[in-house]
Amino acid sequence: MAGLTPIRRVVTGNDAQGRSKVQWDGPAPNQHEASLGSGRGHTDIWVWEETPLPINGTNDDGNLKYIFSGPPGGGHFRVVQARAKPADYDRAKDPDVIAPHPPKLRAGGNGVWDRGGNSLFESAFHKTQTLDYGIVIHNGRDLVLDDCRLPMKVGDIVCQVGAWHQWCFPDGAQMAFDMIWADFPDGKGLAQGNDKPFPAPTLPAGVKPARRIVSIDRTEGRGELVGDTAAPDVRLDPARPGYAVHRLWVADGHPAKMVYETLHLPHTIEPPPRGSVCRVIDYPPDATWKGKIGEAEVKAFFKSMGSPGASTYSASAPHPYMQKTRTVDFVCILEGEITLVLDTQEVAMKQGEIAVLRGANHAWSNRSSKPARISVCTHDGKE
User: Fold this and answer.
1) Helix/strand/coil percentages in the chain, nearest 5
2) Nearest 5°: phi and psi at 310?
3) How far apart are CA 128 and CA 147, in angstroms?
4) Tens digit of pLDDT for each residue in 284-299?
5) pLDDT tens track for 125-167
6) Which residues have a Cβ under 8 Å from the Cβ of 17 and sit 6 or more positions away?
7) Would strands 372-382 and 53-54 be described as parallel, antiparallel, or unpaired?
8) For residue 226, what is the enclosing H or E element?
9) 154, 139 in Cβ contact below 8 A?
10) Partners of 348 in the beta sheet?
């Protein structure tokens, strides 16, 4: 691959007074141009080798050692990129074609199995010992399971619960993956329990659905679809018409569990201890509510989110919805333009860019005339 498209990555830190600031802002440096075959590679955004994740320090953990499935003690957040298929592509002349074969553990182990079937524009059918939040951030990909093929577009998210699957990318694509080491108590990574998926919600006018795909192995060797609907758990803020939080998945510990559903777990901004939460959030233009919100409205919102202590509201703060949690948040800008507000700085961001918030006091401000949408994968952190 003749170079990967740079991914802008904004990483926060804190100054000596504990005020949030930008630690790094620029192209994520740890690129692997052909890590997934000659037609595709990836960029590491952040890697963690222990859980909960450290939220401070001066080391750039995006530069830690690359492991396809991520470290067993933690996980990683990366962006996978594929080139587009040329019009004159001839599969018969493709040097990367591998015929399907029985499942086998890849050389070196590390919790990855595959059964071939790959080419320059298709991954192998594979399975990793991970829970993945897969977020399309540019163009589209087809997710292939043993019982269906699902085209995905920008903003669609799959919660891949240790399932066998394949990726096809004829148009080229960028997709972010939050990969978290998982528990395979039976050694096979089959579904545990029998929780039923929550039904799709009835959304009020003006709220766009956030697509959630869930896949898992019900039987050995078969990745199957659990559900493909709008994210079922949606919270609104009456003071900001058009604001919506879509909760997609919760991991209530580490390693993550192989279960059908998790949204019955308590709704809070912070994840469970050693766990994570995947959300999509819609932000209306600030102009639609600016000057109409005070302490009472902000407190009511954070209480409705199950996290009244997350608010750092102050009349003198740079934004009324400033919040701080002991978490590491991986944020992808999915649509529009939005500004990350910190204690000491502001950073304008646009579609396709990524922020890593490490215990940051922050808010998101939409100063444009159009709605903005972000995805947020929140992980339990520690000092």
Assistant:
1) 5, 45, 50
2) -75, -20
3) 18
4) 999 999 999 999 999 9
5) 999 999 999 999 999 999 999 999 999 999 999 999 999 999 9
6) none
7) parallel
8) strand 222-230
9) yes
10) 339
